[in-house]
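Postdoc handover notes: sequence design on the structure in folder B. Input tokens:
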């Protein structure tokens, strides 16, 4: 499967770092009418003549936020991948593909003449430096296992300040919070309050299925907790994304739990239903034998913003209560 940018380097090592803060104060007063000054997650000052309208996004999470705020980005990294993995905030307006999320094409970005580039701290400092030669760059913190939902909302607010869409950001957050509250109530009514859930994704490498647990420190883990569910994983995740690695034997430690995952038929297939279908360890697991394995709908980006996480909450409630 097409894993998030972090995972290309982190699957084996799981050692991610990010710097700075995404806590954004109100735009600083400026003598020039309409001018906006912000501090991004790298500590850099970002000054705009006014709300940005021609915006490029180098990571799917920030692209989703832009679309949710009503801003159609003129450039998006890996448009095909975004379309496959993030259906919660569909692209409109035919944005230009600027290359990969790890290595956006500076020539392509420059040709779009953006007035703002929104990136994340997963992008290398060298790449950020090159992009800053083209246009102002607003870098948001990629992830923080200590407060994923708070960070997600802070990032949305910061992007909204830069694009003059703070009122829309409030509506997006209100809708997300309402989905969590409704989902928690529905799960409790169905007897799932406090029940364990293990969420994972997987991929095949060298004919072996690698499984990636989303621990309590992950964004999805945080959403599950807000829904009143208990995270079944006992492995430790990384300090940024709250992700870990295991194999099919590692699943034997889960015990009594529901098991959920997301896969893409067009990008990596379904390793749980396909590659593990005849694996004796997998088929012996209690949650497999008891038909408590739930594949969630495609197009829910596991590292997205309120739109994706709201879609995820709806999907989890649906599969557990149907």
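Designed sequence:
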């Amino acid at each position: 499967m097409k894993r998030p940018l972090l995972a290309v380097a982190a699957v084996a090592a799981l050692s991610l770092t990010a710097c700075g803060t995404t806590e954004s104060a109100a735009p600083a007063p400026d003598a020039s009418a309409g001018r906006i000054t912000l501090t991004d997650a790298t500590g850099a000052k970002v000054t705009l003549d006014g709300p940005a309208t021609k915006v490029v996004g180098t990571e799917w999470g920030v692209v989703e936020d832009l679309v949710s705020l009503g801003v159609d980005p003129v450039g998006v990294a890996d448009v095909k991948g975004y379309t496959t993995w993030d259906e919660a905030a569909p692209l409109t307006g035919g944005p230009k593909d600027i290359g990969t999320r790890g290595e956006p094409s500076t020539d392509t970005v420059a040709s779009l003449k953006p007035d703002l580039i929104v990136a994340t701290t997963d992008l290398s400092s060298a790449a950020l430096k090159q992009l800053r030669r083209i246009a102002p760059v607003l870098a948001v913190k990629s992830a923080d296992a200590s407060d994923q939902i708070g960070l997600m909302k802070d990032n949305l607010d910061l992007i909204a300040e830069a694009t003059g869409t703070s009122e829309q950001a409030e509506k997006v957050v209100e809708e997300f919070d309402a989905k969590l509250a409704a989902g928690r109530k529905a799960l409790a009514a169905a007897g799932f309050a406090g029940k364990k859930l293990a969420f994972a994704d997987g991929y095949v490498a060298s004919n072996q299925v690698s499984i990636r647990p989303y621990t309590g420190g992950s964004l999805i883990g945080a959403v599950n907790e807000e829904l009143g569910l208990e995270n079944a994983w006992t492995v430790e995740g990384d300090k940024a994304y709250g992700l870990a690695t295991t194999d099919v034997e590692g699943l034997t430690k889960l015990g009594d739990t529901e098991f959920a995952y997301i896969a893409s038929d067009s990008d990596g297939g379904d390793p749980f239903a396909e590659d593990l279908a005849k694996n004796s360890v997998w088929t012996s697991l209690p949650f497999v034998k008891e038909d408590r394995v739930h594949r969630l709908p495609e197009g829910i980006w596991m590292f997205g913003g309120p739109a994706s996480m709201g879609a995820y909450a709806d999907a989890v409630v649906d599969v557990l209560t149907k």
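Context for whoever picks this up: Residues 143 and 194 are 26 Å apart (CA to CA). Don't rerun without checking with the PI first.
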